[in-house]
Amino acid sequence: MNIKTLILIIINSLIALVIALLSFSSYKQFSNVLNDRILLQLNSIKTLKQNQIEHLLKSEWERFEASEFYSQKIDTTLLKLPDSIKNSNGIHDFTPYQAAKKTTIGFISNSKRGTIIKVLDYNKIKQILLERTGMGDSGESYLVGQDFRMRSQSRFYPNKIPYNISVKTKGVTNAFKGINGRGVFEDYRGIDVYSVYSLIVVGNLKMVILSEIDVDEVTLPLKELKERLVGLTLAIFLLAVMLSLFLTRFITNPIKNMQKSLRIMAQGDYNQTNEFIKNSKEIKEMFDALASLKASLQGAVKFSDDIGKMNLHSDFKPKSSNDLLGKSLLAMRDKLIEFRNNEENTRILSKRLLVNGMEDERRRLSRELHDGVGPYLTSLKHYIENRVKNEEKKAEMKKIVDDTISEIRLMSNALMPASIDDFGIGVTLTNFIESLKKSTTVKIEYEDLTQQESSNITNHQAINLFRITQELINNSLKHADAKNIRITLSEFDDFISLFYFDDGIGFDISTVKLGLGISNIKERVEICNGTITINAAPGNTTFEIELPIEL
C-alpha cells in the first residue's frame, strides 16, 4: 500500500468517525429532549384534568349532602344496584350495574329518610376530558374503571360504548397498583403512545386517568431531522474526501519529486542537486505539518464533541490556513446554522443554470441555421440563376429558395437575434416588433428608453428581457384578443423597467394555466433577482417588471 492510499484511509476514517459521532450525539440529545418535553406536557395536562375531575366530584358530593331536597328518582329497570352498594354512602361507579352499560357515576346517602341516590350528569366530566388543547392530532385523555374497561368515550371509536372497550395496558395496571408514572408503551388500540397515568380516588370511586399521544405524531420532526442529518453527513463526508485528496497530493508530491531527483542522480546526472535540496526541505516541513495535524485533530475532536452537544457557538480556530479538517468542521457548523438559508439560493441558481443552458443551445441552433444552412441555400440560389435555362422554372425555384431563406432567417432570429450581442436589447426589441407588425393586425407601440451608448444591461438580462417580451406578446396575440399593445423598456441608474400593456380580455391570476407562460415569465424575473407586478383586469392588463442593475 502506497503512502497516499494509507493517508487517505486514515484521514477519511477519522473524519467519518467524527461525523458519525457528531450526528449520533445530536440526534440522541434531540430525541431525549423531545421525549422529556412531551411527557412533561402530557403530565401537566393529565394533572390539570385530574384536579378538575376530583374538584367536580367533591363539589357535587358536597352539594348533594347539603341539599335538603336532593332526592332523585332512579329508573330501576336501567340501574340495578346490589344492596352492598346501596348501603354504602359516598361516590360510586354505577356503570357495571347500568343496563346499557353507559358510563354512570352516582352518589348514595343513607339517612333516616331512607336511601337517596343521585346520578351525576356525565357531560360535566366529558367536557373536561374532551378538551385536547396541546395534545396534537392524536392525543386524548380518558378514564378506566377497576374492571379495566373504559369509562369515557374514545375519540378513536366514537360509535362504541366505552364499557365494551377493554383497557388492560401497562399504565392502567401500574396505576391500580398505586404506581403513578409515565412512559412509552402500547395503548388499548395496540398503538405505541407517550402516556402518563395516575389513580383517582374520591370516596368509594377508583378510576385511572390517562393522557396519551401517538409516538408517530411526536417523532415526525425527529424523522425529518434524521433524514437531514444523513444528507448533511454525506455531503460533509464527500467534501472531506475531496479536501483529503488535495491534502494527500500536497504531502506526497515532495516525496515523488525527491524520488525523481534520486533516480536522475543514480543515472549520473548531478545537476539536480538544488532541486533535491529543495525537496528535502519540503519533506521536513511535511513531518512538521503531520505533527501540527495531530494537534489540529485533537482540537477538532474537542470541537466536534462541543457540536455534538449542540454548542454551536464554541470557540474554535484552525491551526493554519492549511488546516483543512478544521475548516471543514467550521463549514459543517456554519452549514448546520445556515442550511435552510442556502436552499433558496441553490434553487434560484439551478434555475439560472437551466435557463442559461437553454439560451446557449438556442444561440448554437441559431448560428447553425444562419452559418450552416444559409450558405447552402445561397449557393443553390446562384446555381439556379446561372444554370437553369427555363425562365419560368427559374423564377419559381428562386421564389421557393427566397422564401426558405426568409423563413430560416426568421427562425434564427426567433431562436437568438444576432443583434442582441451587437446592439443590445433596445435595438433587438425594435427590430423584433417591427418584423412582427408585418404579420398581425394588432397595433403594437414600443418605446426604447435604454442608454444605447453606455448601457449597463448585461447580456444575461438582455436575453431574459427579450424572452419575457416574446412570451407576453405571444400571450396577447393568442389568448387575450387584444387590439392594442404598448411596451416601454427604460434603463435607470439602479434598475431596468419593462412595462407591458394590452387591452385584451385579461385573466384570473389564481387559476391561469401554465401554458400561458406566466410561470415561465416569473421564473425568468426571479433568476434575474427582479420583481414583477401583474394586473390582469379586462381591458387593462399590465405587467411591471424591474431588474436591478448588476455592476
Descriptive report:
The protein has helices at 3-66, 83-86, 122-130, 170-176, 215-218, 220-266, 273-308, 324-387, 391-415, 419-422, 425-437, 459-480, 518-527; strands at residues 90-93, 105-111, 114-119, 140-144, 181-186, 192-202, 205-214, 443-449, 484-491, 495-502, 531-537, 540-548. It is α+β, with helices and mostly antiparallel strands. The longest helix has 64 residues, at 3-66. Mean pLDDT is 77; it is low at 273-280. The strands form 3 sheets. The protein has a 5-stranded mixed sheet, covered by helices on one side. It is built from 13 helices and 12 strands. Strand 9 (484-491) and strand 10 (495-502) form a beta hairpin.
Order of helices and strands: HHEEEHEHEEEHHHHHHHEHEEHEE
- Count of helical stretches: 13
Gap from first CA to last CA: 53 Å
What portion of residues belong to β-strands? 15-25%
Please compute the radius of gyration using only Cα atoms.
Answer: 41 Å
User: Which structural class should the secondary elements be placed in?
Assistant: alpha+beta
Q: Find the count of extended strands (DSSP E, 2+ residues).
A: 12
- Widest sheet, order of strands: 8-9-10-12-11
Helical content (DSSP H or I, runs of 4+): 55-70%
Query: What integer is the average pLDDT?
Result: 77
